[in-house]
Amino acid sequence: MEVLVAVTVGVVFGSGLYLVMQRNMLRFVFGLILISGAVNVSIFVAGRLMRGAPPLVGGDVQVPAEPVANALPQALILTAIVIGFGLTAFTLVLLLRTYERLGTVRTDEMVARLREPRPVGGREVASAGEAAPPPEAAGADERVDGTARDGDGDRS
């Protein structure tokens, strides 16, 4: 049984590595997900696959009489799943913001688009290495959000 799982882990890990080496950031994220899943399964197999032998010891016995599954790899896998989920969520949000800003998820196009200025929110945004143009200053009697201000500081 362990041999079949080891071959499956190798195939999933190889597929994830193939996706990580692509120039598409979304494929990179999916590759990380596959690699983390393959590592989790390999840790699980390291704790021995046992059917019907839970890692529980009775109150009067200090050592189980028969071989049982190790509980430590299972606890590590649960922790890794939670951390991997948080990392995946963060990476997908970061990828979404990158796509909104640059309009692409391909790494070779990202470099070229970072060098050219692109308007964001009605303003011209400078490329890397240049100073950003200053935003137009709001009038003395007008706030940034467009509402007028009277002498007391209250909105009119």
Mean pLDDT: 78
Shape: elongated
Name the structural class. Answer: mainly alpha
> What low-confidence regions span 5 or more consecutive residues with pLDDT below 50?
none
Distance between the termini: 76 Å
Classified by CATH, the class of the domain at 2-51 and 69-117 is: Mainly Alpha
Topology, number of strands:
2
What is the count of DSSP helices, taking H or I runs of 4+ residues? 4
Helix content: 40-55%
Q: Could you tell me the radius of gyration in angstroms?
A: 27 Å
**What order do the helices and strands follow?**
HHHHEE
Going across the major beta sheet, what is the strand order?
1-2
Strand content: under 5%
CATH architecture designation of the domain at 2-51 and 69-117? Orthogonal Bundle
Task: Please give the largest β-sheet.
Answer: 2 strands, antiparallel
CATH structural fold name of the domain at 2-51 and 69-117: Helix Hairpins
